[in-house]
Amino acid sequence: MKTKQVSKLTILSFNVNGIRAATRKGLLTWLNKTKPDIFCAQETKIHDPEILDEKILRLKGYNAFWNCATEKKGYSGVLTYSRLKPKEVKIDFGNNILSQEGRMQLLDYSQFYLLNSYFPHSNHELTRLPYKLKFNQAFLSYIKKLDKIKPLILTGDFNVAHQEIDLARPKDNVGNPGFTDEERVWMTKLLKSGFVDSFRYLHPQKVQYSWWSYRFNTRVNNIGWRIDYFLVSQRLAKKVKRAFILDKVKGSDHCPVGLEIKI
Question: Which domains, from first to last, does the chain contain?
Answer without folding.
Answer: 8-262 (3.60.10.10)
